[in-house]
TrEMBL record:
Catalysed reactions listed for this entry: Fe-coproporphyrin III + 2 H(+) = coproporphyrin III + Fe(2+)
Chief subcellular location: cytoplasm
Organism this protein belongs to: Aeromicrobium alkaliterrae
Binding site for Fe(2+): 178, 264
Pathway assigned in UniProt: Porphyrin-containing compound metabolism; protoheme biosynthesis
A Pfam entry, by short name: Ferrochelatase
Designated name of the protein: Coproporphyrin III ferrochelatase
Annotated positions binding Fe-coproporphyrin III: 56, 125
Family that this chain belongs to: Belongs to the ferrochelatase family.
Cellular localisation: Cytoplasm
Entry-linked InterPro entries: Ferrochelatase (IPR001015), Ferrochelatase_C (IPR033644), Ferrochelatase_N (IPR033659)
Keywords tagged on the record: Cytoplasm, Heme biosynthesis, Iron, Lyase, Metal-binding, Porphyrin biosynthesis
Summary of the function given for this chain in its UniProt record: Involved in coproporphyrin-dependent heme b biosynthesis. Catalyzes the insertion of ferrous iron into coproporphyrin III to form Fe-coproporphyrin III.
EC number: 4.99.1.9
Amino acid sequence: MHDTAPLDAILLVSFGGPEHADEVVPFLENVTRGKGIPKERLVEVGEHYFGFGGRSPINDANRALMAGIQADLAENGVDLPVYWGNRNWDPYLRETLEQMVADGHREIACFVTSAYSSYSGCRQYREDLFEASEGLDVRLHRLRHYFNHPGFVEPVTDAVRAALDAAPDGTRLVFVTHSIPDTMNEASGGPGAFAYERQHREVARLVSDAVGHAEHDLVYCSRSGPPQVPWLEPDVNDHLEKLSAQGVTSVAVVPIGFISDHMEVVYDLDTEASATAAELGLTYVRVGTPDTADAFIAMVRDLVLERAAALRGEDPDRATLGDMPPWADHCAADCCLNARSTRTALA
Ligand SMILES: CC1=C(CCC(=O)O)c2cc3nc(cc4[nH]c(cc5[nH]c(cc1n2)c(C)c5CCC(=O)O)c(CCC(=O)O)c4C)C(CCC(=O)O)=C3C
Ligand SMILES: [Fe+2]
């Protein structure tokens, strides 16, 4: 048995998504409250969900991930229960934390299904965790960002290698992540740190290097917000047009911004970008996400044991690949700040 003290449970923390058509609008209201998202954009995103019968893929992906983590912990002698809670849909973080407290848990490792820094992927989760734990006798330990952990990079590398093996010579590697406002990118990891973009560039570079495919691009999907606010570009569809005009005839699209096939992947890439590629006559392959890859699931165990050791005052090995350091266990007060939010965040 591994020493997991002082931790006594694991919480899988995710975004949440609707599972029925009548849940789509209330879900979108939860996500966008106070965010100034134009009505037309909400109608459009609602249609993406309705196109899949109102069922987001994210909850089933999290159920599978949770089952995988539980099996991996049991096989490897880590005796910690795993719970699941979301920011924006049932099961909500608050209900899950109340259950965890009722079950006697006090020192909880939080694994967030977002690998990178940004207000959306880091601080907003910490704000919601802080709020969900108010008045409860618990300590929450958000596990570090894992974009450069081998358990994240290696499954992506394996999937890219498999895709390239089956694709024509000269296939262009196009890494894709969620666009965010330029100001959110700048504030990610701290004022002026641009961590979101730097972290993604590092992952794209590591994977490209590993498959011996130096030429690659990092592009963005799922832009939202009012048109006058600048978000990260280029958009994946615009980029495919540009590549096609340059004479590229085959692309492998790699969604590194998502740990599993979220709505952005099954709609913005598999539906929309693949249609753009078809119109352009581009051969298109969409590379798989880490999802329930063995190495990805084992990474969760590694991060939990690493944090437990750090909490005991030890100096654990912190697995990483590449040139960036292991991300810090604790975020600084100004990490991933959003000028529009005055909420308190978990450190
Ligand atoms: C960086 C980032 C991640 C990755 C980190 C992470 O994984 O958390 C992410 C994940 C997700 N985003 C998701 C869904 C949505 N995001 C929205 C809106 C927004 N996302 C933003 C950024 C991100 N989002 C931003 C800056 C906005 C604008 C509003 C705001 O400033 O907050 C909207 C509103 C409509 C719209 O504006 O498009 C929806 C419905 C789902 C669920 C998918 C499913 O159902 O499978 C997931 C996993
Ligand atoms: Fe989003």
